[in-house]
Specification:
This protein is α+β, with helices and mostly antiparallel strands and about 90 residues long. It has 3 helices and 4 strands; from the N terminus they run ββββααα. About 20% of the residues lie in helices and about 15% in strands. It starts with a strand and ends with a helix. The chain binds zinc ion. The site of zinc ion has 7 residues, from loops.
Length: about 90
Amino acid sequence: MFCITRNPYILTQRHDCRRMNVVCHFCGALHWMDERVSSSKQSPELSTCCLHGQVSLPLLPDPPYPLQELYTSQSTQAREFRNNIVLYN
Ligand SMILES: [Zn+2]
């Protein structure tokens, strides 16, 4: 993932956030390595997602039928919806 940072006057260098591939072993959330609270890169400690497993949220309920169909169906209409979901949003 790349982040472009700007200041009001000069377009600065592109910053590479690298891959978001560090997994919290408590909740499975994905993080960037720089989000770790420990210095270890071999077993990074993370705390911004679930406070080391102290916070557990219930799963979200399934969306209502028309939306669930659009999210999961292989119909032409559903694929068109997913390809342009940002525009529908
Ligand atoms: Zn977590």
